[in-house]
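Help needed: design a sequence for this.
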């Protein structure tokens, strides 16, 4: 079974609902094993960081979601940015989604190109996620 990796620091969409739960449910519906991490700052020194690296390298796709920056003090201090950069370097298909409130300058500062188009809530995120994951399962092994 293919594995997809999701990382986000944001626990809810502005209108409610969890990006992690939407990722899990979409993966399950498509027959993909979902792996997800919460990208809080304290995670950087966590013993589970080795597990994150292992899961990242085993995954066929990486998805990162960046939500409302008002919920954290420094949007640029987000481990999900590091994970997205590493995924691009590994050549793994990456889907980066950001709320309309997230400052795009953070992505250019961290070398994430192309800068993601703003996502207008859970429904649009689900549409983009489903399209991205369907491409994953339709690729030859």
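Sure. Designed sequence:
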């Amino acid at each position: 079974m293919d594995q997809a990796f999701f990382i986000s620091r944001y626990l809810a969409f502005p209108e409610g609902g969890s990006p992690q739960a939407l990722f899990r449910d979409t993966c399950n519906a498509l027959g993909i094993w979902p792996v997800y991490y919460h990208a809080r700052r304290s995670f950087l020194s966590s013993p589970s960081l080795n597990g994150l690296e292992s899961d990242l390298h085993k995954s066929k796709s990486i998805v990162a979601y960046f939500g409302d920056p008002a919920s954290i003090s420094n949007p640029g201090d987000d481990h999900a940015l590091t994970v997205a950069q590493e995924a691009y370097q590994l050549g793994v298909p990456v889907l980066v989604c950001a709320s309309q409130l997230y400052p795009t300058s953070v992505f250019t500062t961290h070398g994430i190109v192309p800068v993601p188009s703003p996502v207008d809530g859970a429904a649009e995120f689900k549409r983009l996620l489903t399209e991205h994951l369907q491409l994953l399962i339709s690729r030859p092994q």
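The helical segments are 19-30, 49-58, 79-90, 105-109, 122-138.
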